[in-house]
Specification:
five-stranded antiparallel beta sheet, globular, alpha+beta, binds biotinyl-5-AMP, 262 residues, seven-stranded mixed beta sheet
């Protein structure tokens, strides 16, 4: 089988353009950009195994086989940004899934910086505008690194997306430049990643609250084959979703699909 990096061609013009917007931070050190790849996750995993450093950014304008969680597909037509970052967290392995919320907050803030839109984070990994999904986060553990994947529909024509999806350009008249958005996102992410590295989830918990979708709402949580309903009340100190069940008991969920009921 051909390796992911051997079957994709880096694009120096794209890399130069991105570098202009990345400043001098962590994610500007090693930039690998492509017009098209199968999945930026596979490329980042291969680069991490080959010893590329923390901060390496793999960016693509299109993906042929973008993926979400649990083997789902991530539609990746032109107009979106698709990126994966190699991180080498020094925090405990059990805390690494928190990177999904670290990245979600950074994406929400970057979108707000650029467009004035106020996206909501549907715990644990979706970005919503109104009720439609505009972005998603995927955290995977590779042998030597954590790979954080981010997909955002920027100027994508919603006709090319699943029915419950939208793009930034479909929601605002503000300019939605994918390179500027990548730069803003990397800046925000570096700041939150540094804060998380030093202080853990506590600062994130506070900062996330205003961006969370469904707090106070009655939600349905689906975890594997069990379905639970209750009121979403908060995140706990490690990023789990706290839900008040009918009996008044508050239970913490580490992983679930969340839908708002009312
Ligand atoms: C996610 O999974 O939301 C994580 C998506 C991560 C994508 C990035 S792109 C860069 C990097 N390289 C990759 O190959 N992946 C990462 P999940 O929560 O499982 O959501 C998947 C579901 O979102 C699908 O089943 C569809 O319902 C929906 N979906 C698919 N493509 C979409 C899109 N472009 N926009 C909005 N929703 C989409």
């Amino acid at each position: 089988m051909t390796s992911p990096t051997a079957s994709a061609q880096r694009d120096p013009a794209l890399e130069a353009h991105l570098t202009e917007h990345l400043g001098a931070g962590l994610f500007a050190r090693s930039v690998h950009a492509y017009a098209s790849v199968a999945s930026t996750m596979d490329i980042a995993e291969e680069l991490a195994a080959g010893g590329l450093p923390e901060g390496t950014l793999v960016w693509a304008a299109r993906q042929a086989r973008g993926r979400g969680r649990f083997g789902r597909a991530w539609e990746s037509p032109e107009g979106g940004i698709y990126l994966s970052l190699i991180l080498q967290p020094t925090r405990a392995r059990a805390e690494v899934p928190q990177l999904s919320l670290v990245a979600g907050l950074s994406v929400a803030e970057a979108i707000h910086d650029l467009t004035g839109l106020f996206p909501r984070i549907r715990w644990p990994n979706d970005l919503l505008l109104e009720v439609r999904k505009v972005g998603g986060i995927l955290v995977e553990m590779a042998s030597t690194a954590a790979i954080v994947g981010i997909g955002i529909n920027v100027t994508t024509d919603p006709c090319r997306l699943p029915p419950n999806a939208t793009s930034l350009a479909a929601c605002t008249a503000a300019a939605c430049d994918p390179y500027r958005l990548t730069g803003a996102l990397c800046q925000r992410l570096q700041a939150w990643y540094d804060a998380w590295t030093v202080r853990g989830f506590a600062p994130l918990r506070e900062a996330l609250r205003p961006w969370l979708a469904f707090l106070g709402s009655v939600v349905r949580l689906t975890t594997g084959d069990s379905v639970v309903e209750g009121q979403a009340v908060d995140l706990d100190e490690v990023g789990r979703l706290l839900v008040r069940l009918d009996a008044g008991v508050v239970r913490a969920f580490a992983m679930a699909e969340v839908t708002r009921l009312r």
